[in-house]
Write a structure and sequence with these properties.
Blueprint (H helix, E strand, L loop, with lengths): L12 H15 L10 E7 L21 E6 L1 E2 H4 L8 E2 L7 E3 L4 E3 L6 H16 L2 H6 L6 E4 L7 E8 L10 E4 L6 E6 L5 E8 L12 H11 L1 H4 L4 H9 L3 E2 L4 E4 L3 E2 L3 E3 L5 E2 L7 H18 L7 H25 L4 H21 L8 H5 L6 H41 L3 H23 L1
Parallel strand pairs: 6-15
Antiparallel strand pairs: 1-2, 2-5, 3-4, 7-13, 8-11, 8-12, 9-10, 10-11, 13-16, 14-15
Helix pairs in contact: 5-7, 8-9, 9-12, 12-13
Length: 440
């Protein structure tokens, strides 16, 4: 992608986690405590019937949240019956009940808190009378889960590009039959790239300890331009490790808070695949927006409910738009490829012809400061409508011109309309070819 406003730089997730951990421990040792291996389950969000204000949490934002915290036993120690789970609380010690004044749920694709909010809304809806359900204005909270009809796994591949290659571009290639997609993005400005091999879960190259020679042959045949940059160590390391899974598309809404003391952010409100770097980046944007709202809220301890409601107002629609836009670029088959490529071609063409009327492609709009996903989605819908009208209008004029030309030739030469129409079409094609030649 050339002429970018911002050059993409990739930071691997494990490195990002390491940086955040170090900053937390060095700058906030007495304010933030990191704990690993604990399972957190909500008991009450402070807005259920029977909740009572207790302690410092009983303020204008309502009673505090109640959470059950249990030590999480790794699956290997919990037994084979828990296979498929990361950990188990069956053999855990006695759970602890805590009552935080403010709960920020950032538990990623696990959606533990979001799932509990969804269950609470369903329970409240079942218990309410039919008239109350009919006239209730607020829509129930739900986690919209999309079936993954284009499952992919990935292996990361470190690359070092030669000095004469551009180091500010994203590189993409697809193998024969779309077996593997290769995506490479810069991780610095000196030629270091982080690349991904995207493939189906049952692909031979996706399994751990696959044949290094087979992987080498694959690169030499399908991606020779990248294969020559991979030494023996990189190929062997990549062959040994197993592929990682990509999450399914999900979003939460229509609100991103529960009661006055719980808010959701990050992957638990907008889960996307990592193709375009929109997951972690958008999560960090969530954090910045929430921080700005909390800082701007006067008397925060008594007005926390207003702050979390404001976060919903600012981020709920963008979260939904992010997921729907990303999923639209992840469709399967030839039709899915056309749905991805054709809009890029149309946007590029129309933007070059009339940049003041037609916006740039979706990827170009992603890089614009202050351009939210909802605005991008609405603008692209408007562009599609205008593009359709222009193309339809041009075709209509062309058909009308052919029809008029054939009528003139019938009157002048007395030939049949079918033959006249064919002659007019040939003349039109010849004219178009001459115009193109003159431009070249």
């Amino acid at each position: 992608m050339a002429n970018k406003l911002v050059t993409s730089l990739v930071l691997a997730r494990d490195k990002l986690v390491g940086v955040l951990k170090r900053v937390t421990e060095e700058r906030y040792p007495y304010r933030i405590e990191l704990r690993y291996g604990w399972q957190v389950d909500p008991i009450s969000f402070g807005n259920e019937e029977g909740d009572e204000g207790e302690g410092s949490g009983a303020s204008g934002s309502g009673p505090p949240v109640r959470l059950q915290v249990c030590r999480c036993v790794p699956v290997s120690a919990a037994g084979a019956e828990d296979e498929g789970e990361e950990c188990s609380v069956k053999d855990s010690t006695q759970p602890t009940i805590i009552t935080p004044d403010f709960l920020i749920s950032a538990d990623g694709a696990a959606h533990t808190i979001a799932n509990a909010m969804e269950s609470n809304d369903l329970d409240r809806r079942r218990k309410s009378n039919p008239l109350e359900r009919l006239f209730r204005k607020a829509k129930p909270f739900r986690v919209r889960r999309y079936e993954d009809d284009n499952p992919r796994v990935y292996k990361s591949v470190p690359l070092r590009f030669p000095s004469h290659w551009p180091h500010d571009l994203n590189y993409s290639a697809r193998s024969t039959g779309s077996r593997v997609t290769f995506e490479a993005l810069p991780s610095d400005g000196e030629g270091s790239y982080c690349a991904l091999m995207l493939m189906r879960p049952n692909d031979e190259l996706a399994r751990a300890e696959c044949d290094p020679e087979e992987l080498r042959r694959f690169f030499d045949e399908e991606f020779p331009q990248f294969g020559k940059l991979l030494d023996r160590t990189v190929i062997e390391d990549d062959a040994m490790k197993g592929a990682s899974s990509l999450p399914s598309f999900r979003f939460s809404g229509p609100r991103l808070h529960e009661g006055g003391r719980t808010v959701l952010l990050g992957d638990c409100i907008h889960t996307v695949k990592l193709y375009y770097g929109l997951g972690a980046n958008t999560a960090l944007e969530d954090v910045q927006i929430l921080s700005n709202i909390l800082s701007a809220t006067p008397d925060l301890s008594n007005n926390l409910d207003e702050a979390v409601a404001k976060f919903t107002q600012q981020r709920a629609s963008d979260s939904r738009a992010l997921v729907t836009l990303s999923r639209g670029m992840d469709r399967t088959g030839k039709l899915g490829t056309m749905r991805f490529v054709l809009p890029l071609i149309l946007d590029s063409t129309f933007n070059q012809i009339a940049p003041r009327i037609f916006a740039s492609s979706m990827f170009g709009m992603f890089q614009k400061e202050g351009m939210g996903f909802t605005r991008i989605q609405r603008r692209k819908r408007l562009d599609r409508a205008m593009q359709f009208l222009v193309i339809f209008g041009a075709l209509s004029l062309a058909v009308a011109g052919l029809k008029r030309s054939s009528e003139v030739e019938v009157r002048m030469f007395g030939v049949k309309k079918t033959i006249a129409g064919l002659v007019a079409a040939i003349d039109t094609l010849g004219l178009a070819r001459n115009v193109k030649s003159s431009k070249e």
